[in-house]
Specification:
single chain; 78% helix
Length: 151
């Protein structure tokens, strides 16, 4: 998983600089990076709290449209980590449908890969199909090692 302490430090610096410059889009991106780190650390409660604060921030919310698939992926995984597998899976599936509709290939691949992780215990065959589709998309995009959050 790497050194998340260092990741928090670097992202925190980036957020502070974005805040200083009034760069709302970059600040929102830094906040999402922090939330992703929290999800990777399996700190779902903290991640969902931070996500709630971010979504309540009017200046940040305007910048979040470009990050909608990421927001929903992190929310879905955090819900699964909290024990709400059906709720988290529903969020991920909805985000996947939206990403497909938007022709966002990278988001589709990430969401398929994450859904495969969520579905593997109950539906190994479905998870294998999702992972195969994700792998094919990642290859097309040149992604060697996709970022996957633990469930």
């Amino acid at each position: 998983m790497g050194d998340t302490r260092r990741a928090h430090e670097l992202v925190g610096r980036s957020r502070a600089e974005s805040e200083r410059q009034g760069a709302h889009h970059e600040r929102a991106e830094a906040d999402l990076a922090t939330i992703e780190i929290l999800v990777r650390e399996r700190r779902a409660d903290a991640a969902l709290d931070a996500l709630g604060r971010l979504l309540a921030d009017d200046a940040a919310r305007a910048a979040l449209d470009a990050f909608a698939p990421m927001v929903q992926r992190l929310r879905g995984v955090a819900l699964v980590q909290q024990g709400d597998r059906p709720g988290g899976r529903a969020v991920l599936a909805g985000a996947l449908a939206a990403a497909r509709s938007d022709d966002n290939t990278y988001a589709v691949a990430l969401l398929l890969d994450q859904l495969a992780e969520v579905d593997a215990p109950q539906d190994p065959a479905g998870a294998a199909r999702a992972r195969a589709e994700a792998s094919a998309l990642f290859r097309t995009l040149g992604v060697v090692r996709p970022a996957r959050c633990p469930v």
